[in-house]
Amino acid sequence: MINKELFRVMKEKWGGGLNTFISEKVVPVAGDISCEDLGVKETGLMEEMWREVDVVVNLAATTNFDERYDIALGLNTMGPKYIVNFAKKCAKLKLLVHVSTAYVWGEKGGLMPETPFRMGEALNGTLGLDVDVEMKLVQERLQQLEDTKATEREIKIALKELGIERARKYGWPNTYVFTKAMGEMLVGSLKGDMPLVILRPTIITSTYKEPFPGWVEGLRTIDSLAVGYGKGRLTCFLGDPDSIIDAIPADMVVNSIIVAMAANASQSCQTTIYQVGSSVKNPVKFTYIQDIGYRYFTSHPLSDKQGKPVIVGKVKVLSTMASFNRYMSIRYMLPLKGLELVNAAFCQQFRSLHSELDRKVKFVMRLVELYRPYLFFEGIFDDINTEKLRLAAKCSYHEADEFCFDPETIDWEDYFMNIHIPGLVKYVLK
Fold first, then answer.
1. In this structure, are residues 260 and 389 in contact, taking their beta carbons and an 8 Å threshold?
2. How does pLDDT run across 114-147, given as a tens digit for each residue?
3. Is 300 helix (H, G, I), strand (E, B) or coil?
4. Where does the Thioester reductase (TE) domain start and stop, copy by copy (predicted)?
């Protein structure tokens, strides 16, 4: 990890002594949070952790929207349960911080409060949500698939579909937010008198300032759309132009975790939820992101496989599913079908052209399927507790300014044009 670009500033500060510095501060432990005792095999090491650990921060998760249901349950739901069990055995424990996501609220509109979920509470009011039942269901489905000699690909597809099916049954749009919500339920119900912070960030984007601007690893949510557009794959998209894209830079999320740890340690029995985002204090509309993307990739075009600049145009935004389906049928589906017939008549002479068009259509349709719930999102995330935390930090800690997580300080145009999109190009598309 310390060989990553993220640690460049520390390398400049410590030089050849960085490895020694890190070894004095950090002890990496191999484990698996989907197992009891976090999968730590060495008894002595586990006992040492129980003696010495005073704060537990759980950031582990799978963030794929359509993850296999067994994997998502193991990491996002059962993982927090095992984290709580571990934390209860820590003799010096002052606080457990569980990092969730603001989108546990699903597709609800209006103001989403900083309140916990009750065990078994479904977003749509459907009765019968039970984590144990969900675990049993997965095991039964997996056994059925193995009994019928299903291939690994067939098992993967079936378990992905099961996750989406179960999520939608109880009112969540995808497997990720459904399993994260159940993880919150388990943490809240099992914590006992343990001090607990549940931190719910919104869409996490590249670093704003620390350790330097623009660092990002991998494509997340809106970044998939930005890259698809910059590569010329996205000529239209579905969404409400007035919907809010709630983004928050990664270093602000980290800062909020650190300040929450300082403010809540040893607060016996207390559970506090912080929603860390920008939709209340500094909202960004979908149309603004669209305009920024056009301006950036027009002045800084990406290159195609032949090294030629990709020319982008303004994306046609379709504001309803009906208009989107009409557009896709006329613009792509019918020509694709015609090309398929021509291809068959001319002995696959146009196979590469057909494959390219088919790939583009599937790319757009997959993005729409995954992100549709958020493209018409009408909610904003209340951050009263988070604002109180910001104010308390300013009053109590002289170094509070070094741990800024106030979205009002962000100039979105400067951030997206000069920090975030250049960071994507440099660190993800390099």
1. yes
2. 999 999 999 999 999 999 999 999 999 999 999 9
3. coil
4. 12-257
- Which class for 283: exposed (0-12), middle (13-18), buried (19 or more C-beta within 10 A)? middle
CA gap 78, 66 in Å, rounded: 18
SS3 at position 133: helix
Tokens 């650190």 belong to residue? 258
Report, as an integer, the average pLDDT of 304-318: 85
Residue pair 117/45 in contact by the 8 Å Cβ criterion: no
The DSSP output letter for 303 is: B
260 vs 197: CA distance, rounded Å: 8
- What is the Cα–Cα distance from 15 to 46, expressed in whole angstroms? 33
How many Cβ atoms are within 10 Å of 313's Cβ, its own excluded?
10
Cβ pair 428, 216 in contact under 8 A: yes
Segments of 51-149 assigned E as strands: 55-58, 95-99, 110-112
pTM, entire model: 0.89
List residues with catalytic annotation.
176, 180
Cα–Cα distance between 70 and 59 in angstroms, integer? 19
Tokens of 89: 């055995």
3-state secondary structure 9-65: HHHHHHHHHHHHHHHHHCCCCCCCCCCHHHHCCCHHHHHHHHHHCCEEEECCCCCCC
Tens digits of per-residue pLDDT, 8-20? 999 999 988 898 8
